Amino acid sequence: MNFPFFIARRYLFSKKSTHAINVISGISVVGVSVATMALVVTLSVFNGFHDMVASFFTNFDPQLKVTPVMGKTAAADDPILTQIKQLPQVDVATECVEDQALVIYRGHQAMVTIKGVEDNFDQLTHIKEILLGDGQFELKAADMFYGIPGIRLAEQLGTGYMYNEPMKVYAPRREGQLNMANPMDGLVEDELYSPGVLFQVMQGKYDKNYLLTSIDFTRRIFEQQGMVSSLELRLKAGSNFERVKSEIKKLAGDKYYVKDRFEQQDDTFKIMKIEKLMAYIFLTFILMIACFNIIGSLSMLIIDKKDDVVTLRNLGASDKQIVRIFLFEGRLISAIGAIIGILLGLALCWAQQTYGLVKLGSSSASFVVNAYPVSVHPEDVILIFITVLVVGFLAVWYPVRYFAKRLLA
Question: Are 291 and 335 spatial neighbours (Cβ–Cβ below 8 Å)?
């Protein structure tokens, strides 16, 4: 057995001549445990929100989205897009045209993003799972086009689930000059009717700003015949996602972006990652402060064991081994605190997942979920354990060497 480690372990658990040293050692373990527990719980809550938001996006966003690098649109018959659609791993491919327009309904108006899709959009995404109302997913019937608004947009326009009057849509003409004497000549006007449903993604970007309709309608009102804003794809079950994505990127070259669901919402997830990183950094600083208790405990232990140090030197222990004894003591306190803190943190996360102990608000209708979501990621637990050990070692390294050298001088 490692001699310094053996002595350090005996010192940690043995009764000291001064009771205060035992108390301070206990406080050190508790301080490290609480800081570690806070790291586990906080990072798990951030993971919970991340996973929850990701689950909402999967109902509306495609697995892969191909968009032009230059400009808003590209030719629908581009050979590159044709090659991508014909890949054997592609199960569903949907052409989309998306742009902004003004919509007016009974005096209420809003600037919205109109997304025109093909009839197979319900096979591409889980749109049917987020529809509200008595109707069904339908984009057109003969020459009549339907518009499905997000729930917040419907509230803003006052349409309800079913709007009985047509919704007016206005988009600027792509060609020609604006006639100030008659500004309406510079706009393309059209109408959308209600299929009796709304969609609710539970994400403001979509629920408040998006209006879903047929691609034929958007091509007509935005004057984009034969063009696409994006090609949205769903792969066959069992396909190697990363390999297929890499293959599509090679086909797309530098002409098209190829983005998965997380990359499509890169701004949202990037903010969440930054928030999680900042929380990790701040809690690590708190952990460092908690480790200062270890310094106090070790300095008193060094003084208490002055006679033992003399005995150990007489028995042949080197100064280096004696210094390592107290360094191991600090590491043991950090390791025990880390293990206890991680176990407590995991227990709290389990209790939150099972019973929802900490609520988001008193009104269940105000939030997407009633309690804070929690998701424990093994890599976070490993990172926290390593962080505690490293911070604990760095916190005691210089003070222990300083006090030990003075004792051994």
Answer: no
Two structure tokens written together for 408: 């051994």
- pLDDT exceeds 90 at position 209: yes
Dihedral sign for Cα atoms in the order 58, 59, 65, 67: negative
Residue with tokens 């889980």: 126
Interval 155-187: pLDDT, tens: 999 998 888 899 999 998 877 565 555 556 678
CB 151 within 8 A of CB 212: no
Residue 91 CB partners (closer than 8 Å, separation 6+): 234, 235, 236, 237
CA 101 to chain centre: 31
SS3 191: strand
The tally of CA atoms less than 13 A away on the side-chain side of residue 194 is 23
pLDDT band at 361; cut points 50, 70, 90: low
Nearest to 168 by CA among 185, 145, 152, 197: 145
**pTM given for the model:** 0.74
Least confident of 50-59, 256-265, 383-392: 50-59
SS (H, E, C) 35-104: HHHHHHHHHHHHHHHHHHHHHHHCCCCCCEEEEECCCCCEECCCHHHHHHHCCCCEEEEEEEEEEEEEEE
Q: Is the separation of the CB atoms in 24 and 300 below 8 Å?
A: yes
Helices (H), 305-370: 306-314, 319-355
Question: Please, is 357 exposed, middle or buried when counting C-beta atoms within 10 Å of its C-beta (0-12, 13-18, 19+)?
Answer: exposed
Closest CA to 220 of 138, 104, 109, 97: 97
The amino acid occupying position 33 is S
